[in-house]
Amino acid sequence: MKISMVASGSRGDVQPYIALGQGLKHAGYDVRLLTSDDFETLVTDAGLAFGSMGQSIETTLQSDDWRKVTESGNFVAILGKMRGAMQDGAAKLARQMPGLLGGSDLIVTGMPGLTGVFSIADKLNIPVIQAYVFPFTPTNEFPSPLVPKLPFGRALNRLSFQVMRQMLWQSFKLGDTTIRRALGLAKGSFWGPYQALQAKQVPVLYGYSRHVLPRPSDWDALNQVTGYWFLDAPDDWRPPADLVDFLNAGDPPVYIGFGSMGNRNPAAAGQIALEALQRSGQRGILASGWGGLQASDLPATVQMVASIPHSWLFPQMAAVVHHGGAGTTAAGLRAGVPSIIIPFFGDQPFWGQRVATLGVGTAPIPRKRLTSERLGQAIRDAVSDSALRQRAHALGQSIRAEDGIAQAVAYIQQHSARR
Length: 419
Prior knowledge:
- The protein is of the alpha/beta class and 419 residues long.
- The protein has 16 helices and 12 strands.
- It folds into 2 domains: 2-228 and 402-418, Rossmann fold (3-Layer(aba) Sandwich); 241-400, Rossmann fold.
- Helix 5 packs across helix 7, helix 10 (266-280) crosses helix 14 and helix 12 crosses helix 15 (386-400).
- The longest helix is centred in the middle third of the chain and has 29 residues, at 154-182.
- The protein is globular and about 65 Å long.
- It starts with a strand and ends with a helix.
């Protein structure tokens, strides 16, 4: 059975789908993952076939315009930028995607479904399973993770999902319209594919832990929370010797990194991190990521790294400071150490608040309000609060006891057998 998976976004967005793809391959499926060219090596090293979607998300996110809009945290402006990017690439996707997905027995996709994947599946009569790493199905129990924190209440929680789903659809639908035109399909619904997916009883898998966010009681059986989909370091991976020496030379350090999130002034962000570590009296590891954090003339108590597997590094930290992306948040929680989240946009504020509510991290500090004083105090609080550290440790144990990949694979097997 041939399964095609489609994933988009940063490395933290794509890695869970690679991990799920590995699980499906180990279960005997022929798996191809379609994603950005940035991740071809990551995909093939995981043993999966790679399909190119023909763009570099790293180049896009490192541009001055993108760094400015992501640092602002203005999600509406970010959606506008995404719409512009979709306009630029829609015709190319319309030419590539049908051929790449043709011959599949099943398509597994998240957000790329809105950019034409659902329509291609419809044209080619290929069944689909939706897969997300944050809640996307409306519920009364909490607001959409993609809306600003507001006192909605149960009555408006469901509406917040519907509004956000429409905003996403209106931003992405140009790609879908272009693909439908190329396939000879009628124009899609103004309201998007959501009603059609529900009518077809298309399942939705969620790659996060019920211990972090319990499954809403008003979701139907189509919506399954499986547990996280973790991609661990390859068995033959070895850490740099200088990093091992640094870790062995003193107390556990504090990790600070913003992943793919850009900063207009990476050196200034690096200076904030260095001063915060000095204020808190902690050793530190700074992760440069995709250029969002830079520092020079480092003291002996701080080490700079490029890309190190979180599964290896985070359990050795005193605390982890990051942007709150779903993947990095999951890695920090699984490690069982306190988290300090500096959200930029999207679902990051949601996960930051969730971490604080669970009592396994400090209150989130929005990127535009980040100072060395605030970060230094948060680090002091995180490393000195024994109750917080105990809660983080216990949650890590619960998450490590789950096998989200096995749960998701089992569901896909059962669903496929019923068809």
